[in-house]
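Response to reviewer comment R2.3. The reviewers asked that we include at least one raw input/output pair. We reproduce the pair for Transposase here without editing.
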Amino acid sequence: MIAPRLTAWRQARTDARATLGIKGRNATHDLREIFNAILYVNRTGHPVALPTPRLPCKPAVYGYFTAWSKEGIFTDLDYDLTGLVRDHHGRAAELTASIMDTQSIKTSPNVPVDSQGIDAGKNGSCNTADSPATTKPCLTTQPA
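Raw output as returned:
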């Protein structure tokens, strides 16, 4: 799945250059090896600049990473691979639901109260992101 997508990307760029009459160098790096180098850096945190005979040079890896990021190649691959995994487990390839969570944060005192959002699940101003868990708990009293 990855190699055909990367090959199609390279072919589209080559065709676009030819259409515009732009001459360039022939590709010398195997796209799968570039992709493997990106995965290597992602998994290990080691820079590609270290001399290893298996990985392409750093400028090539960085150049392809930048181009693929700007053109959404990683997003497309992630979406396609997620669909394959979901299909493998007997679920629809498309996501049908999602869960979002928010965290209350303290609003600037310069913002008018009527324009501030509310979090209905919170009972007081002590439930802010900057209050450490070790502080005295906030107790609210309800009229009897």
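Residues 2-21+30-88 form one domain. The longest helix spans residues 2-20. Further pairs are available on request from the corresponding author.
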